[in-house]
Design brief:
Blueprint lengths: L2 E4 L5 H10 L11 H10 L5 E5 L2 E10 L4 E8 L8 H15 L5 E3 L6 H9 L17
Parallel strand pairs: 4-5
Antiparallel strand pairs: 1-2, 2-3, 3-4
Length: 139
């Protein structure tokens, strides 16, 4: 039975290793230790890990800008999928957003990540076809 904890920098090395090893999850400079630490501090109560004894088996990286919530990384180790772990992590993150009076949450999923898209759709999330995402590097 997994246990759930707030995501801290103590979990960072295992989390980044999981994200980088998992198809469908992309990492960037925003996932470097200093940036992640700042993100976690700014979004307390919205980021969680699932543990099986001392092994990290799941993570959710979630935050908000004061108006909307955003989920960036949801990952569960393949050996632990289909046990409700991802749904529990999502529920905890969304509860954290609600505590911060955030009324809507968006998430980012690669268009080729069929497993991820299927999970989110089964959890009641809707694919938007009226928006495109645009990005610009600031450095």
């Amino acid at each position: 039975m997994p246990t759930y904890h707030e995501f801290t920098m103590h979990h960072y090395e295992a989390a980044i290793a999981m994200w980088q090893d998992m198809p469908g999850i992309g990492t960037s400079d925003s996932d470097q230790p200093a940036a992640t630490e700042q993100f976690l501090r700014r979004n307390e109560g919205c980021n969680f890990v699932a543990m099986e004894k001392e092994q990290l088996i799941g993570t959710i990286l979630c935050g908000h800008d004061g108006r909307r919530g955003y989920i960036y990384h949801l990952a569960v180790h393949p050996d632990y999928r289909r046990q409700g772990i991802a749904s529990q992590l999502v529920a905890m993150a969304l509860a954290g957003l609600k505590e911060n009076h955030i009324l809507k949450c968006h998430l980012f999923v690669f268009d080729q990540n069929e497993t991820g898209i299927a999970f989110w759709a089964s959890d009641g999330w809707e694919m938007r076809d009226d928006l495109e995402i645009m990005s610009k590097y600031l450095s």
